[in-house]
Amino acid sequence: MFSTPLFEGQAETALNQPLSVVISERAAGKYFSGENSLGKLLRYNDKFDFQVTGIFKNVPENSHFTYDFLASFQSLLTTQGENAVYMDRWTSMNYQTYIQLREEANPLEFEKVMEKYLVENTPEHMKDYHYFLQPLTKIHLGGFIPGELAQNSHMKYIYIFAGIALLIIIITCFNYINLSTACFSIRAGEINTRKVVGANRKHLIQQFMIEAFLTTLIAFILAVILLYFLMPLVNAMIGTGIKFVLLKKTNILAGVIALVCVIGFLSAYYPALLMSSYKSISHLKSGKFAGDKRSGLSRNIPVVVQFVISIVLIVSAITIHRQINFIMERNLGLLNDPIMTLRVVDDNEEIKKNMDVFAAELKKETAIRGISVSSWLPANIRSGNFALWDGQKEGQRILFHNLRADKNFLGLYGISFIEGRNFSKDIPSDRNKEYIVNETAVRLMQMESPIGKSFGYGQKDGVIIGVVKDFHFVPINQRIKPLAIRLDPQDMRYISIKIDSQHMSRAIRSIEKKWKDISPGFAFEYSFIDEEVEALYRSEERLSRAVTLFTYIALFLASLGLFGLVMFSVERRIKEIGVRKVLGARIIDIVALLSKDFVRLMLLANFFALPLAYILINKWLQSFAYRIDLGIWIFIVSGMAALLASFLTISFQTIKAATANPVESLRYE
């Protein structure tokens, strides 16, 4: 189905037998360097020997998911034993299911037939489940459906990046238009001469269009060279692994070239029309030529638009960064010390049987502050079931997320109690019979006094002993779900260890030594809880970095365009400045005279940009169930930042002009 090419072995029979496995080139090089790996054995979880029956080409990074081992599905019956019975249950959701349709099949029609068949064979308590098909090519950018095999993103972020790129292109086009029209009077003599010797408007338009296309082409070539060398830096900044393939993909290259042609045309069309429209006599008049007012207005509008875009991006960058920080703090709280997490595989019986010994040995290390075991980490609790409780209305069904943990879990992660108590080893009934629920669960069950009320799954055989404050165990773009926690340290998938941040290296060495002493057949692999949370919001983090980077670029380009326009304005008024200085004008008066028009433009840009930024960024925040408040200070800081950038740009030229010796500008008058 997935057309995995094998370099060695037979694809048709490679996975026919239990405990057979095909491996990637990378894995073959790692485990059988320089040897023929076919027929060799690989030990899995220090318990089962798999025979290598094939080698496949490394899976590209841009695949739906990546892997180094493909084992036969029948192997689950051997490796899981009794647990493999779930393979035959309609209620099992442990596996990804892929369906390859015939070319003539209608996916929508098949989806209806499939769902009807599944519902007919599903137990009564799952009748309200909804089943649907998702095209393979839509998975990676299809949103954040729980249980995917790889970290996914959303198509909206592609639209956001494309939109920002388009805005930056608009800024550069406006810069070109602005500077081209601003230089009109400088090129007036050339235009006049060409008209006098017989050039018509068509010839002038062709000249200006060719100039613009050549400029755009040179810029494109320089951009490709620059991108090639800066790609690693860009990837590092925004946390991506994008490869430079522009010159290898003819369809993409053709699209980019077409875009370059469109940009060249759009940026050249207006200046070409404008500069070819005036009559020759207009350029021979002394003083201002006809059309000055119109061309001045046409230069001011692009400046305003450029800074509107820049201010919107500044607001976006600040807000997105604050929302990401809000997510991290809300998910993790304010943990004073880092928490290491160790994944415990099902077959690691040594660590499971000796967990008390492992914990006792670690507690002797002063750099370790606490240890806990649990079925899930607090940032991503994925199992659940429908619950029963006292006072439940007939037909009322609520899916509770289910967490099994020891008595140290809540304290280790700083999850506080609202009422009731924690689990205790001294109370025998706490094991599997007592539950701690969150605030959302109490609210949905409509319990005024939940402590002591009956609660359970399948039957009400347990009692609620405590209520904890809500914490985020699902992505923050979703509302917090009801959660039930029960004491069951034997059902462990994760070990959480709180470490003194001042002695990280010593603590990690100590944990690794104790792990290898007890469980030498299993690799010591760890991560930190903040890394687990960051993985959930990697797309948002990339968005934050990318928007910040693009904001700097946009502000720089807008300031560059303003710099050119101020320079041109000063150049045209250089004699006026000289006369004013001779007549006694102070430097501050001249600076104010030259700056006031541009400052008005910046204030006008703020007037349009800030409401627009509020609408756009507020719409983005709506995708999160929990979000920051859009304080007015964000808009004030963003507006002031744009004003400061523009003021520095304006001041450089105006102060230079105001402090110049008037003799230089008036010596020939």
Task: Give a summary of the structure in a few sentences.
The protein has 669 residues and is of the alpha+beta class. It has helices at 25-31, 75-79, 107-120, 155-182, 188-196, 201-238, 250-277, 292-332, 349-353, 355-363, 409-412, 430-433, 439-445, 504-518, 529-536, 538-572, 574-582, 587-621, 632-658, 662-666, and strands spanning 6-8, 20-24, 41-44, 48-56, 69-71, 339-343, 368-374, 384-389, 399-405, 417-420, 434-438, 454-457, 462-468, 483-487, 494-499, 526-528. Helix content is 50%, strand content 12%.
Question: Could you explain how this protein is built, in words?
Answer:
Among the domains are: 6-138, no CATH class; 339-536, no CATH class. It contains 20 helices and 16 strands. Helix 4 packs parallel to helix 7, helix 4 (155-182) runs antiparallel to helix 8 (292-332) and helix 6 packs across helix 7. The chain has helices at 25-31, 75-79, 107-120, 155-182, 188-196, 201-238, 250-277, 292-332, 349-353, 355-363, 409-412, 430-433, 439-445, 504-518, 529-536, 538-572, 574-582, 587-621, 632-658, 662-666, and strands at 6-8, 20-24, 41-44, 48-56, 69-71, 339-343, 368-374, 384-389, 399-405, 417-420, 434-438, 454-457, 462-468, 483-487, 494-499, 526-528. A hairpin with a 3-residue loop joins strand 3 and strand 4 (48-56). Strands 8-9-14-11-13-12 form a six-stranded mixed barrel. Strands 1, 2, 3, 4 and 5 form a five-stranded mixed beta sheet that branches. Strands 7-15-6-16 form a four-stranded antiparallel beta sheet. It is α+β, with helices and mostly antiparallel strands.
